[in-house]
Write the structure tokens for this entry.
Amino acid sequence: MAGKHFSILSFLLFLVSFPYTEGTADVPKTMEKKIEVVVEATVYCQSCEHFGTWSLIGAKPIPSAKVSVTCKSHNGHVSYYKVFETDKNGYLYAPLEGFKMQHYILDHPLHSCYVKPVWSPLESCSLLSNVNYGLNGAPLRYENKKLHGSKYEAVIYAAGPLAFRPSDCSQTHY
């Protein structure tokens, strides 16, 4: 019996003789990379010459135009809505902060989101046009564009281009 106690005691002393270290103490914690969904588009004033068509030949960009991004869940409820403003070149860069997908495939931005022109600051060019389905909502396109940072990644979807039209164009195109 004494021999059995001696071997157990020897084993315990053997274990205690080595310093205890935590295996994960020196491993840095990994930060989760934030992935954002971004929509880009350009908003123009369509020339009277191309009124009634989808042509943007001769169109001028509209700075400070308002554009909405709407996303609906797979059961038809609006899950995201926000109005954004274009820059001085009529370019829209809209990070969809707070956008969440309830269903990975059915609520994907390509299926669930669309973009509409809302307001033009130009009184001479403030009527909505249906260029690229702007009246009902232009669908998003994936063009393989991404921005990468150490803690940030943005997947950029494109819509449009979108357009307003002048109100004083005579209707010569049918």
Summary: The chain has two helices and eleven strands. The longest strand covers residues 34-45. The mean pLDDT is 81.
